[in-house]
Amino acid sequence: MRAAGRAVRARVRDRTAASDPGLLRLTAGLRTVGAIALTLAVLSLLGADVHLLVAGAMAAMVATFAIREKQPSAQAVTLALGLPVALASVSLGAVLNALLFVGDVFFVVLIFCAVYGRRFGDRGTALGLIGFQVYFLSLFVGATASTLPALCGAMAVAFCSSALMRFAVVPATPTGVLLRLRLAFRARLAQLVAAQVELLDAPADEMDKALEAVRVGTARLHETAMMIQGRLEEGTPDESAARLVQRRIADAEIAAERLGLLLLTARTAERADTLTLHLPGAPAPSVAGPAVPEEAVVTLRRDLQALHALVLRAGSGDTGTGLAHVRNRLLGYRDEENLPPASAAVQDVFRGIGESARAVLGLRIALDGPPDESDDTPATARSREELDAEDAAIEGGGEEAAQEEQTGLRRPTTRAAVQVAVGSSLAIVGGELLSTQRWYWAVLTCWIVFLNTESTGEILVKGYRRLLGTVFGVVAGIVLAGLVGRHTWTAFALVLVLIFAMFYTAPLSYTLMSFFVTAMLGLLYTLLHTYSLDVLVLRIEETALGAVCGVIAAALVLPVRTDRRTNELLGTVLERLAEVTEAAVGQLSGGPADELLDKARDLDQALADLRAATQPLIHPVTPLRTRRHTARYVVALLETCAYHARTLAATAELLPTHPSIAADPRLRGAAGRTVRNIETIAARVADEHAGAQVETGPSIASLLGSDAGTPRYGRITDRVLRHLERLDEAVVGLARPLDVPVAAPKG
């Protein structure tokens, strides 16, 4: 019974960790709800009326979600500075509420300053958000000079409650967050291996579904790796430890992605294109008969399930003989003599399982320390020696290059501040024409659609999502208000539930978040005895008006077109891709060591920014279907390029320590064409009149006198050639959708 209970708890823990990496959403929801509940409890004991309860609850929510720093000390400073900002804001709101013109002008100035404060980092963003939201709060509860002392007291209680929840009840240290992210990485790695088992067993008519599960698992694993990368500096004791974890996370991610590609190749009896793993909706290669013999399927299934178990138990502290036996068997596939008799493609899958087992071993050593070595086989001992040599060679990273800073109106924060000020002015005028009492809803929507957006298209999509969530939220608000009636504490309990749902779903769906916000507002209006159907309908009208004002301001005032934004980010991705490729090939050719993994992660971050910026282009409401397909195809090709470049970088970093890898000076010349092609495409993206053409010619392997038709997985040179060839093919493939001319092959 105890063993069964532990197994159930472990499954629940793994699923929770995988669905919410680092438990960041759960922590944010619990912390915010706890701060509001504590504020309500204290204020109710002090005999506060409903208006003060609502004000305190909203202030506690703002004080909690506005602060984004990772270090607790920085959070404490920002929270301490936020209280006087909140007191000043609510005081000005109470005084200026009755002065129509002066109050409106000040509100616009406050909005400008709040957005402009983003240039000062997380602290400037948080203080600006607190100032704006608390001023809005004063309008919402109808603050006056006579109620100001009580409101200031409610603000103080709210900020103290937020501090207590943040630092005592639901603390989140950088080390703890990184630990939970590591657990999430392990859980998502196990989910990806499970999806690969399903791909092995999928019948021909369900291959597309199984392949999509592998795609999703690969993308989620990469997402978690990027989250870990962003937390390494604060969550590890020193730079060497951070680089070690970075190295092992990269190894595991690359090995898992390669295993999926090898399995797809063996399963479909044809060499799978790496793009197949990155292009959503791309059909699986056709299955021409039983590509994998039944006896090989049985063995592969057994070993994939063993790898799945090895991943799941890697961080559990289980060091029993059974686990060591499984690990030794899988690591044995790294030696040719241990491979079972099968076709070359199937043997590649077994080799991939061996490499994945090595990556899991390295990840466990980096995160939990070296396990017991008493049961090691020669293959396991060799893998451990390689990992120890790599760990010893890791040194601190170099200095980051200074980035050019834009000035004046070209600076994004200045441009956004001007745009939102103009949009808010329009929203104030239009909102007061709709309602002299609730005009601020239009301003709030205009403000929100500018948060974390850069282009007109992003603002349009965000406005659409907010309006959609608001419409459905109004319906929910009507139902909830009817059920609650005048039961104050029942309404507050439902408000807490909705707030938790709002924070838990915010990173997943902006539409869902808007739905929960609007439903919550219906309950707050009920508490303030101002609820009516007309009020909720007006909420929809004001939201639509605010979204329209935001789009108009973004389109007419210092506009950043979606095409321009995506082209800028595309140029950055291509620049990072050229840097990683050139540096990796240079090191593989015998050149000096470079910070390759750092460069690879810079490439991944640039690609993530591009992927986010293309959302307006690939959104279902986008009428230009051809453009939507082109954007998806280009991003998928770039993800393929990034995978191969990342793998080259990881292989190059093994040069100083791995006995089977030797520098080959010929690689530099053979890969020169690929780097030139990347630079040519980048130049064409920057200037559509650029006349350079993408080069084509003999395969890279043929330039080195290697037979690329029969690559041998066991030879590192052949693996490097395979990735260089796939990268070269993907780069040439980028030319067509980006309208870059391709030169005919010479000779």
UniProtKB/TrEMBL annotation:
The keyword Transmembrane applies. The keyword Transmembrane applies. The chain crosses the membrane at residues 23-44, 98-117, 129-148, 439-455, 467-483, 489-506, 513-531, 543-560. GO terms for cellular component: plasma membrane. Keywords: Cell membrane, Membrane, Transmembrane, Transmembrane helix. It comes from the Bacteria. Residues 427-552 form the Integral membrane bound transporter domain. It is a multi-pass membrane protein. Residues 366-388 are annotated as: Disordered. It comes from Streptomyces cahuitamycinicus. It is found in: Cell membrane. Belongs to the YccS/YhfK family. This is Integral membrane bound transporter domain-containing protein.
